[in-house]
Write a structure and sequence with these properties.
Length: about 550
């Protein structure tokens, strides 16, 4: 009897499933090591870079030159205290998340900035102060500003890794396979050895647009290592609601999407079917400051307002949100509070003076000055008037009401509210009472105390926090109200991984041949953030996990 034919030698050293930032970083590391890589994705080549391309480009750096130039005193120890106070690790499943958190903090305080600088990445000199926290030193939040905006935003962060992968393609090391949808991981003798799926019909839609799912054929690729870089569930509202935890109240009946439709969670189920362990699926990160995009790219496309701390925040019934739930302070605390009201929207009330100083919009396309590195356009941020994208939303956005008088503003808010829901008399009472507190330097209103404190930081005083003033002062007008919606964004749980990004099985041992990176891995370990993020750590987690996977696979391939 003839001996069986030996298995064909794999064409690739690794297959990367997903061409977002984490997948590109893993592939770039493999190219640097001279390895052969297939990078496959169900979307077209126009979507290379995934969600990161659309991002503001914010990164969590610790004790950076940018911070020190602004007089910000940061340290690894302070960052660790902030991280642990925010994460609230409390499960057996958090063991690897804790390890990833410590490793990432070391990276953010050490090599991250220099590694990116060598690749040509630069940062805007004003460091932002995101997630200011819950009001106590050891609780959730950033004690100091740490949100470093990439000069060029998300596209500039993607660029060096895309360039490396495309250079690898030109050198014959990389096969880019867009419109290839993975439906199955090939498992033989307990090891993942490749992928199978469908070749999808070409689609000439623009970046981010929903694409067809018409299968025109099948494919199979084999390699000793497969990297799942397929993202989370934010574009699939059915999965978001199914994973919604009781601690956050009832799942919203309506939500906007802060990510394209292709962020569908398919890769997580496929990895689990092949032996990977999914953990912390009930941990998620969604925003409460979403507004409908008047020029949408994907279905239910929402944009997040990045607010300064001065706008007054009311729930759908007209009750002011309690401290410390001020704009920009506690994302999930605010989400939990609003979800428990039973309503899916809330309100900002502010002035023209506030919108000019404090409103920014998340995303590369909403910040053309930073994205295009346009110094002349950037100067608009310190001049009178809102930025052009903010002004466009104010004029064309369905969620914006602009009025010269308070009665006109309240009438507009009523028109956008369900009948009888909004107590406009209480909104007026709160505005009048808050304005009385502005008349002197002392106040029992903690929001006024917080914004005065924020102006002690030169970056906030220059670009992000308006001088305290009466909201009903006609000189500060017109008055503005913004209807805010819940906006889906990130999964904080995912495939559990070790520090080499190897996917772990139910017994805690690595699944041979399988790796996971980025959001699919909970940004490390199946949940590096625990319950809460400090912001700037989603892109950072993609960088760090992708790098770990690429380097680990490159080392294995030489054995």
């Amino acid at each position: 009897m003839a001996a069986p034919s030996p298995a064909p030698h794999p064409e690739f050293d690794a297959i990367v499933v997903g061409h977002g930032l984490s997948g590109l970083v893993a592939a770039a590391e493999l190219v640097d090591a001279g390895k052969r890589v297939a990078v496959i994705d169900q979307e077209s080549d126009a979507n290379l870079g995934g969600q990161a391309w659309w991002s503001f480009g914010g990164l969590f750096n610790v004790d950076s030159p940018e911070q020190r130039r602004l007089g910000v005193h940061d340290s690894l120890e302070l960052a660790r205290e902030d991280w642990l106070g925010s994460a609230g690790f409390d499960r057996d499943e958090d063991e690897w998340g804790r390890r990833w958190a410590e490793a990432y903090l070391q990276f953010a305080a050490g090599e991250q900035r220099a590694w990116l600088h060598e690749k040509g990445v630069r940062f805007f000199p004003i460091v932002g102060w995101a997630e200011r926290g819950g009001g106590m030193a050891i609780a959730h939040g950033n004690s100091v500003p740490r949100f470093h905006i990439t000069w060029g935003t998300g596209p500039a962060l993607v660029a060096p890794f895309e360039a490396k992968v495309r250079a690898g393609e030109a050198a014959g090391l990389v096969a880019l396979r867009p419109r290839h949808r993975v439906d199955e991981l090939i498992v033989e003798d307990g090891a993942v050895v490749g992928v199978r799926g469908a070749v999808l019909a070409p689609d000439d839609g623009s970046r981010g647009e929903a694409s067809n799912r018409d299968a025109t054929g099948e494919f199979e690729l084999r390699a000793p290592a497969v990297v799942v870089a397929s993202g989370g569930i934010g574009g699939n509202h059915e999965l978001v609601r199914a994973a919604w935890p009781e601690r956050l109240g009832a799942p919203p009946a309506t939500m906007l999407s802060g990510v394209p439709e292709y962020v569908d969670g398919r890769g997580l189920g496929i990895a689990e079917a092949s032996g990977a362990r999914l953990v912390n699926g009930d941990r998620m990160w969604h925003y409460t400051e979403g507004i409908e995009n008047f020029d949408p790219v994907w279905p239910m496309h929402g944009i997040r307002i990045l607010p300064g701390p001065s706008s007054m925040w009311f729930d759908a019934t007209g009750r002011r949100l309690p401290p410390p739930l001020f704009p920009g302070f506690d994302t999930l605390g605010t989400l939990e509070h609003l979800a428990r009201t039973g309503h899916d929207h809330s309100w900002f009330v502010l002035t023209q003076r506030i919108i000019e100083k404090e409103f920014a919009l998340s995303g590369s396309e909403q910040n053309p000055d930073l994205t295009n590195k346009d110094i002349m356009l950037l100067a608009q941020r310190v001049r009178a008037g809102a930025t052009a994208p903010v002004e466009a939303f104010k004029q064309q956005g369905a969620d914006f009401i602009v009025a010269d008088t308070l009665p006109e503003l309240l009438d507009g808010m009523r028109r956008l509210s369900p009948d009888g829901l909004l107590d406009t008399a209480n909104v007026e009472r709160e505005l009048v009472a808050r304005d009385r507190e502005v008349a002197h330097e002392y106040s029992k209103d903690l929001q006024l105390t917080a914004l005065r404190g924020a102006r002690n930081y030169v970056g906030d005083k220059l670009l992000r926090v308006a001088p305290p003033h009466r909201i009903l002062d006609p000189k500060a007008g017109p008055l503005i109200a913004v209807k805010l919606h819940i906006l889906t964004r990130k999964s904080l749980g995912g495939i559990q991984t070790d520090l080499s990004s190897r996917a772990l099985g139910a017994d805690g041992t690595p699944v041979p041949g399988l790796y996971a990176v980025g959001e699919a891995a909970g940004f490390g370990g199946g949940g590096v953030h625990g319950y809460r993020s400090l912001e700037g750590t989603f892109l950072g987690g993609c960088l760090f996990t992708g790098r770990a996977a690429g380097r680990a696979i490159a080392g294995l391939a030489t054995q």
